[in-house]
Design goal:
binds pyridoxal-5'-phosphate; 14 strands; globular; Aspartate Aminotransferase, domain 1; single chain; alpha/beta; 359 residues; Aspartate Aminotransferase, domain 2
């Protein structure tokens, strides 16, 4: 077996210890004689998995009883629709910040549901950035304020969150659980699992419970947070296996020491890469230094030919997934929680050597 260092933006690398655990109990889950994949979602074995996944998330994020943890399907993209369906009433306006490609997609979908006011727009700014907290021009009585905490494609990340009158809603798909978070500042947080939580197929929603009551009677039962909250995410068959993987990943995070420990490691990994990028002229970062993501490190080389050679040679050396998003090009190294520091050190050594040969 030959495992690569996988720098893919998503689906992304999972901790090896988690994959090994899943492998070891794949055929016979804890003496049940079947895989957890083959078990009823109402079984005792699955029930324990489901509730541990929820409890681990509650522990890691220090959630109080005002908040519900909900598992859904449909990805963060599904939440682009579901959030306004539940929270944006007739005659109301939702404030959105446009920080890049993902925020723009959220805005496009919200506009199908209701009135949207874009209160800051730096989607096309180069170097990439997210809005400054002091440039947001809130609408009076907005239904909510939406942000994208980390723009996975551009590599720009909110370092400080705005303090809002209206509930703050955040797409945290690519940086949830990467750093400690004061959830009490948020009304709703959602994230597709396949960056930092587990495999694709499950979507995490953290909701301040009182907001679930806002939904209009015209919204189908299935698309109401309230429905899934009341059923502990068992209204219909949940994505059992992805939730099992989230349970293992969150258990692993707790064993590692939790989010403060992860944040330190993530900062260290990101700094190692950005320091090298800043050290010379060969590599140039594409996000503004104050907003550089600790999760997706984006940079360019002097030419597209060199970028293609970089990706080709890195792949040959066992470092994959480094091609920037097809919409922007360049290089993107995604270094989520599961990327070990050794992987970043290997990439840095490769980058130094590549610059020496081609610089
Ligand atoms: C990947 C990503 C999405 C899309 O997630 P899906 O699960 O594919 O719907 C949305 N927002 C951000 C910030 C992402 O990184």
């Amino acid at each position: 077996m030959n495992r690569v260092y996988n720098f893919s933006a998503g689906p992304a690398a999972l901790p090896v210890a988690v994959l090994e655990q899943a492998q070891s109990e794949l055929l016979d889950y804890q003496g049940t004689g079947r895989s957890i994949m083959e078990d009823s979602h109402r079984s005792k074995a699955y029930d324990a998995v489901h509730n541990e996944a929820i409890q681990n998330l509650r522990d890691l994020l220090d959630l109080n009883d005002d908040y519900a943890v909900i598992f859904l399907t449909g990805g963060a993209t599904g939440q682009f629709a579901m959030a306004p369906m539940n929270l944006l009433g007739e005659g109301q306006v939702a404030d959105y910040t446009n920080s890049g490609a993902w925020a723009a997609k959220a805005i496009k979908e919200a506009r199908v549901i209701g009135a949207v006011n874009v209160i800051a727009d730096c989607e096309k700014d180069m170097p990439a950035r997210v809005p400054r907290v002091d440039e947001l021009q809130y609408t009076d009585n907005a239904a909510y304020v939406h942000i994208t905490s980390n723009e996975t494609i551009s590599g720009a990340q909110w370092k400080e969150f705005p303090v809002t009158q209206a509930p703050l809603v955040a797409d945290m798909s690519s940086d949830i659980l990467s750093r400690p978070l004061d959830v009490s500042r948020f009304g709703l947080i959602y994230a597709g699992a396949q960056k930092n939580l587990g495999p694709a197929g499950v979507t995490l929603v953290i909701l301040r419970k009182d907001l679930a009551e806002r939904v209009s009677d015209s919204v189908p039962l299935f698309y109401r947070y309230k429905t899934h909250m009341a059923a502990n995410s068992l209204y219909n068959t949940p994505p059992c296996f992805p939730i099992y993987m989230v349970m293992l990943v969150t258990r692993w995070l707790k064993e590692k020491g939790g989010l403060a420990v992860m944040a330190e490691s993530n900062e260290r990994k990101a700094r190692t890469l950005y320091d090298l990028i800043d050290a010379g002229e060969f590599y140039s970062g594409t996000a503004m230094p104050e907003y550089r993501s600790t999760m997706n490190v984006t940079f360019r080389l002097p030419s597209e030919e060199l970028e293609a050679a970089f990706i080709r040679e890195a792949t040959r050396e066992g470092m994959t997934g480094l091609k920037g998003h097809r919409s922007v090009g360049g290089i993107r190294a995604s270094i989520y929680n599961a990327m070990p520091e050794g992987g970043v050190n290997a990439l840095v050594a490769f980058m130094k050597e590549f610059e020496r040969k081609n610089g």
